[in-house]
Amino acid sequence: MNIPERISALRALMEERGYDVYMVPTDDFHQSEYVGDHFKVREYITGFTGSAGTAVFTKDEAGLWTDGRYFLQADQQLAGTGVKLYKMGEPGVPTVEEFIASALPEGGTLGFDGRVVAIEEGAALEEAVASKDAKINYSEDLVGEVWADRPALSEKPAFALGEEYTGESTESKLARVREAMKKAGADVHVIAALDDVCWITNLRGDDVDFFPLLLSYAVITMDEMKLYIDERKLNDDMKSDLAKNNITIHPYNAIYEDIKNLDTASTVLVDPNRLNYALFNNIPGGTKVVQQVNPTIAMKAKKNDVEIRNIINAHKKDAVAMTKWMYWLKTNIGKIEITELSAAAKLETFRKEQEGYLWQSFEPICASAEHAAIVHYEPTPETDVPLTQNGLFLTDTGGGYLEGSTDISRTFAFGELTQQMKEDFTTVLQCNFNLAHAVFLEGTTGYNLDVLARMPAWRRGINFNHGTGHDVGYLMNIHEASCGFRCAIREKEQAPLMDGLVITDEPGIYIEGSHGVRTENELLVRKGPKNEYGQFLYFEPITYVPIDLDAIIPEMLTDQEREQLNEYHKKVYEIVAPHLSDEEREWLKEYTRAI
Q: What does the mean pLDDT of the chain come to?
């Protein structure tokens, strides 16, 4: 079936079951940002492939809400489907809840699969329908009934990380979680977020493309942890290690019935953004519930010394692969045909040469010319084009290593560039460095500093419609949830920047129909001096890849910015050069020269 036929089949089910409005979010049962093939329900019913978005269907309307990263992409992918794009945050655009409230008739029914909606979102929907005296039915996955050839849940095996990678045992992590539970006044903690469960158990999986996560839930008490998982994914050693920590194994979906049997005298800790609405509603009535951020969020955000050492080593390996790729691109463009997809595949071959490499840490963004104006453009066989021989090539890629994950954006210049391209490239570099060289007091949030990354662009009357940075997990999610650089408040990202945090710095400029530029380094938060004013912090860049000098206008840079760039490139050369061939090393010397 094509998209309009799928929507028609969904509406037939809505009519049959008595739904006036039906909502289809992006999430899986664990409120993950990126989901496995089985959970790509919203993509199936709308054709939009972005990582964020919510679809809403009435008897005669269909809408898709997504954020600024995906406006251009969604506009293209929704063409001809009958699904209208609602640009979140734009003036005059209703929120999902506002649209649902206006679309519902008095006494009507809103439907959704409660397993793919977070507690907090469910509460907002309850408020939205209350104005119409309407009902919510969260028990049916209607799109799943339409999707005849839906992929099965992943059955790929898990793998374990030793303490030489994690720097901390499961026993220690559980003790810390239980201490946090005590402070919250709880004796039961229900966890659905995949990265939180993986962090506690030191297990990883391959259940979501690119992200080493394991489909699982957990219920932690003061003396036991129940792990809900497909037991076939675990080998005997893993089971033995879990048992040593009094972690018992239960079928993946059994948690929904088990939660109904919780002792009503318990106090249950849940995260309203990271536990699904259906599971939450299975907690017995009368049970005291504490809603707050999972304590594991902050614990895993602050990397320990072993993790930091490993992450830096992973970035050094990745820098070698990226630099070899940059050399290959620069010396072969115009001589052989290179397309967006073949360029991405070539980078993968260089990464595979590095010890400890597993797989790419997210779907690679390789965008030539006007494709780069689509912030999260990912090439497909249908959209793949040869790289421009006169223009810019934006790349945002990453590698997953046993020592950690990387996330790096570089924009490469080929042939002749326009003056605007060079100005935009240089401005983005200034945005990146303006933030990277900040010094700030402990307690500062990413919201306090985001303006530093935008100011050089704002001075030119330009803005980028996405966050400036996100914290990065240790071989888990590339986007973690503790904090980020943003100018718009997100409640779940308001934790202060802390020593040991790894966070990205990725400003950009996007000119529709022409080009895009993004330059991204990962930053490690370090302790600076401490005095009567408090503890000062600063950033240490841990991405070691050249920034393309062919696209920079040196005269636009201040003396300080030129010095910062030269110092950065000096470090890049020192780290990467010993791992290159003679020709590559001579080339790198030129591309890291002082300007």
A: 96
Q: How far apart are CA 525 and CA 498, in angstroms?
A: 6
Helix segments in 110-228, DSSP class H: 119-130, 142-146, 163-166, 170-184, 194-201
Contacts of 355 (CB under 8 A, 6+ apart): 317
Q: What is the dihedral of CA 523, 527, 531, 533, to 10 degrees?
A: 40
* Confidence bin at 488 (pLDDT 50/70/90): confident
Token pair, residue 585, equals: 């090393």
**Closest alpha carbon to 82 in 5, 16, 159:** 5
CA atoms within 13 A on the CB side of 173: 28
The residues facing 503 across adjacent strands are 471, 523
How many CB atoms neighbour CB 131 within 10 A?
Answer: 11
Work out whether the CA dihedral 259, 262, 265, 268 comes out positive or negative: negative
Q: For residue 152, what are the CA distances in angstroms to 33, 115, 357?
A: 19, 17, 27
Q: Which residue has the tokens 């206008």?
A: 553
Q: What is the Cα–Cα distance from 70 to 432, expressed in whole angstroms?
A: 22
Rounded CA-CA distance 197/192 in Å is 7
φ/ψ of residue 137, rounded to 5: -120, 110
Express each pLDDT in 550-592 by its tens digit: 999 999 999 999 999 999 999 999 999 999 999 999 999 999 9
DSSP 228-268: ES-GGG--HHHHHHHHHTTEEEE-GGGHHHHHHTS-TTSEE
Residue 490 banded pLDDT, cuts 50, 70, 90: low
- Averaged pLDDT for residues 98-117: 96
H-only helix segments in 353-445? 419-436
**What is the per-residue pLDDT for 215?**
97
Give backbone dihedrals phi and psi of 537, rounded to 5 degrees, phi first: -125, 160
